[in-house]
Amino acid sequence: MQGPWVAFRALTADKSVVDNKISRETRNRIFRFAKPFAKDIYIFTTIVIFEATLVVSQPLLFKFIIDEGVSKSQANVVIYGAMAVAGIALLSAVISMAERLFSSRIGEGLIFNLRSLIFDKVMRQSVAFFTRAQTGSLVSRLNSDVIGAQQAFTSTLSSVLSNTISTVIVVATMAYLSWELTILSILLLPVFLFPAKWVGKRLQGLTRSQMASNAELSQQMTERFNVSGALLSMLYANRKKELSDFEGKAATVRDVGIKIALINRFFFLSLTLIGSLATAIIYGFGGLSVIDGDLSIGTLLALVALLFRLYGPLTALSNVRVEIMTALVAFDRVFEVLDLEPIVADPVSPIEIPKGSATLEFKDVLFTYPKAEEVSLASLESIAANQDRGETKEVLTDISFLAKPGEMIALVGPSGAGKSTISSLIPRLYDVGSGSILINGVNIKDATLTDLRSKIGVVPQDPHMLHTTIRENLCLGHEFISDDLLWAALRDAQIDSLVSSLPMKLDTVVGDRGYRLSGGEKQRIAIARLLLKKPEIVILDEATAHLDSESESAVQQALEVALANRTSIVIAHRLSTIRKAAMVLVLAQGRIVQRGTHEELLAVEGLYKDLYTRQFANAAG
């Protein structure tokens, strides 16, 4: 019986969505998204309408078979009538398959388009966006909200159309057969709606509670099930307390699940009982009408069959606004992400950066981190939504220097001085507030991000590895690289012997964040990845700072190759690196307070000499 399920789906929807205000622009955009599927939507709508008209066909055939065949002992009528019932059943099955085909084509096509657009928009955001947005919230936009939007053109559209048409046709047919029993059936509708409404309200609260509890449970698992989280738990956490916390959250999910299961059973039992009550009343009053000769047996059976096709659609239609608003709110949340423009974008009329050895120049650069409302959405931040949404302070002031082709510039200074910020500005992970950064005389804001970043290679202290093979980690950003080139890069990075000793060699999976590799091995694979990119500028956050002596030696040899004849900006932690630099920039509180070679800076009193005494004296000795 379809009726209880239709009522259940409609009445258990979250009615809080009806309070949302959906703009006309949102509605217009929804229609624009539907335009590529206009033909499929038209065919789908036609199929749904035709399918809805078949609702009354079988009950009327039953009436015909009983009244004209069985009652009059007409075997041919019974046989042909039964064949017609079978034919309609077969036709309904074919129509249902066709409806599902076009429904899936529209729905899956819309999901594909929306997911592609959201993924592209998210990946074009600045680093500032990712430092605030929660990963789970972003994934939800690509999954739950996109699917909710898709339902507007499939489930909601078909439900509204079929239920409206079914209700009109069923009521009209019942009224034609017996207007007295039809009125009696409609008067019973409030009795039918009461348990559904009560269950709906109960389930809304329980469902929200279940979703919140599941989110907490998922958060704990997500944080513990990656390598970093597992290591943290192993080294610091109390295993019994961890298990107790998990069991507490899981128990909440269990208890809510039991309540939902019981209420669901109560819901279906209530509707079945009320449906049986309505059937009994119709049989009672209708049976008396048959005895009095006012109604035929076939008509009575047809009315009972139609009764089951009346309550479900009527109940669903009483909540149609909730279903429609749910779909519209999902679209609104999707559009919220699509409308978030990245603060770092390509220029309208880009200028190509000249190829060849790179000259890098900072001219009077001032930088302030962007405000939260400029880079992210409060709905994607959850915990941090109301934090740091005011004015931000200046991070860099009057930064000017010139790095000639092939020169190394070392950045030195205490933590928080602005070293990493300077390195982030070169590939436009952020944009400068004022001043300019030029590569070969071209302001990097005037170049496309693809052109700019193709000329820059970065090796951080802890390089990120995707949970895939060494080959795919090396080929990141390339359509294809031959094995010969891959092995050449690995040789230059001093890591070829290790990779060749692995059972799967280049096809060895490195694990989550590369945790199957040591720190030095990850560094050398990252350097091999950089060598395959062949950048003109290298940005290096001293890759040997936290390595053992053996790994450091191998990485240093790899870096010699990576930095040869390339302009480089190095955040220096070791004296050996500083001594090789053509210029050392000493930063404090976002300003360059000293500049010169190691020897020049050591010859005068100042911050560099203090840093040298505290950090580098032992290395010098």
Explained architecture:
The protein is α/β, with parallel strands linked by helices and 621 residues long. The protein folds into 3 domains: 1-10 and 17-127 and 135-178 and 316-340, Up-down Bundle (ABC transporter transmembrane region fold); 188-294; 360-379 and 391-620, 3-Layer(aba) Sandwich (Rossmann fold), CATH 3.40.50. The protein is built from 26 helices and 10 strands. Strand 9 (583-588) and strand 10 (591-596) form a beta hairpin. Helix 1 runs parallel beside helix 14 and helix 4 (57-70) runs antiparallel to helix 13 (297-308).
Kindly provide the name of the CATH class of the largest domain. Answer: Alpha Beta
**Broad structural category:** alpha/beta
Order of the strands making up the biggest sheet: 6-7-8-3-9-10
The protein's oligomeric status is: single chain
Radius of gyration, taken over Cα atoms and rounded to an integer in Å: 35 Å
Compute the separation of the termini in Å: 87 Å
Shape: elongated
Residue share in β-strands = 5-15%
- Second rung of CATH, namely the architecture of the largest domain: 3-Layer(aba) Sandwich
- The overall strand count is 10
What's the domain count?
3
Low-confidence stretches: 1-8
Average of pLDDT = 80
- Looking at the structure, the CATH topology of the largest domain is Rossmann fold
What's the number of helices?
26
Helix content: 55-70%
- Output the CATH homologous superfamily of the largest domain: P-loop containing nucleotide triphosphate hydrolases
